[in-house]
Amino acid sequence: QVRLVESGGELVQAGGSLRLSCAVSGRTFDHHSMAWFRQAPGNAREFVATINWSGDTYYANSAKGRFTISREHATVYLQMNSLKPEDPAVYYCAVSIPATMPAVASGYEYWGQGTQVTVSS
């Protein structure tokens, strides 16, 4: 059974940093991309960043220059710096369908339960 477990979300002051982690278990995903999405109350789930099996990355405009996605073995990370009041959300990690690098939620077949990020101004 595939499991994705996110951690690292917490309350942080605006301008601060957080590092989110997502541990994947149950099978290997050598030719899949892994991504982070986020969803704030009342909003649709929003793409944040993705990284493919070769280490290529792609970011939403809102994340460029502030967030860094990385992966090591079965764990994907999201380093978030210079957090802003508009960043609070539940952050989800996801694994894509094979051999793709999508920036939309429909391109991902496995999802975690999410971790809450809160930013105080």
Write a structural description:
This protein has 121 residues and is an all-beta fold. The chain is built from no helices and 11 strands. A hairpin with a 2-residue loop joins strand 7 and strand 8 (75-80). The chain is globular. 31% of the residues are buried. The mean pLDDT is 96.
Produce the secondary structure layout.
Blueprint: E1 3-7, E2 11-13, E3 18-25, E4 34-39, E5 46-51, E6 57-59, E7 67-72, E8 75-80, E9 89-96, E10 108-111, E11 115-120
Parallel strand pairs: 2-11
Antiparallel strand pairs: 1-3, 3-8, 4-5, 4-9, 5-6, 7-8, 9-10, 9-11
Question: Notable features of this structure?
Answer:
121 residues, mainly beta, 11 strands, four-stranded antiparallel beta sheet, seven-stranded mixed beta sheet
**What is the share of helical residues?**
under 10%
Strand content: over 45%
- Main pleated-sheet profile: 7 strands, mixed
Structural class: mainly beta
- Tally of DSSP helical segments: 0
Low-pLDDT stretches are none
Shape descriptor: globular
Overall number of strands: 11
Please trace the helix and strand order, writing H or E for each element. Answer: EEEEEEEEEEE
Mean pLDDT, rounded to whole units? 96
The N- and C-terminal alpha carbons lie at a distance of 40 Å
Rounded to the nearest angstrom, the radius of gyration is 13 Å
Short description:
The chain has 121 residues and is mainly beta.
